[in-house]
Amino acid sequence: MATTGPQGAIRRRAPRVDAIRNREVILDVASEAMASQDAAVDAREIARLSGVGMGTLHRHFPKKEDLVQTVLRRDFSRWAESARQAAVGAEDPWAALTDFYQQALTGYARHRVIVEHFALTWSEPDLEGIQQLRLVLEQLRARATEQLRPGVTTDDLLLLLVSLGHAVQITDKCRPQMWNRLLRISLDGLRADHREPLPADASSDTHRPNPDRKP
User: Fold this and answer.
1) Exposure of 156 by Cβ count < 10 A (0-12 exposed, 13-18 middle, 19+ buried)?
2) Measuring CA to CA, which residue among 43, 30, 37 is closest to residue 75?
3) How far apart are CA 22 and CA 178, in angstroms?
């Protein structure tokens, strides 16, 4: 029978292999299109460039939002891992922190949508991508404790990345070196020779009991 034996097993597996390949091609094409345009890129154009029909695209991603989110999660994780590898390769703790920001923001400059995605997920720190970055920055902060000004937290470093990401978004096309200047200024402000106390984080008091509050 056609469905028995090794050859039959190969024929049964072939559609699955093709489906996996099609899915990866769709994701690669969508990622490139979103990097150069934005999340509003036409799904029909993605299907055409991927060499598949709309039916195939919809089988993998029933809604366009499914495709966008899958691309962003994949690219975000790859980007974070690339930045981590660049940073851990530096022996000097300060160079490691500097290299992380440089690599991360260079990735921002290549992918327009990832900036918006990162900012939107800032308030949801348990998401995989944000948690991945948080862990990297925590390691870098711990290594560079002696080089960092007192009071700098992991959240400070993470929010600085969000802010600089917006700077990349609005300056990379017209003034591509502007965000690099801002990065250097920001990193100088993190150095330990700035001994002035940092302002308190008001959010840390949000859940503390108020002794003056009446029951």
Assistant:
1) middle
2) 30
3) 39
Please name the residues in contact with 13: beta carbons below 8 A apart, sequence gap of 6 or more: none
Contacts of 192 (CB under 8 A, 6+ apart): 146, 147, 148, 149, 150
At 205, the pLDDT band (50, 70, 90 cuts) reads very low
Decide if pLDDT at 28 tops 60.
Answer: yes
Rounded Cα distance between 70 and 64, Å, is 10
Of the chain, the end-to-end C-alpha distance in Å amounts to: 79
pLDDT-derived band at 16, boundaries 50, 70, 90: confident
Distance of CA 13 to the CA centre of its chain: 34
Residue 45 has pLDDT above 60, yes or no: yes
Q: Which residue has the tokens 């400059």?
A: 109
Q: What is the pTM of this model?
A: 0.67
Q: Is 191 helix (H, G, I), strand (E, B) or coil?
A: strand
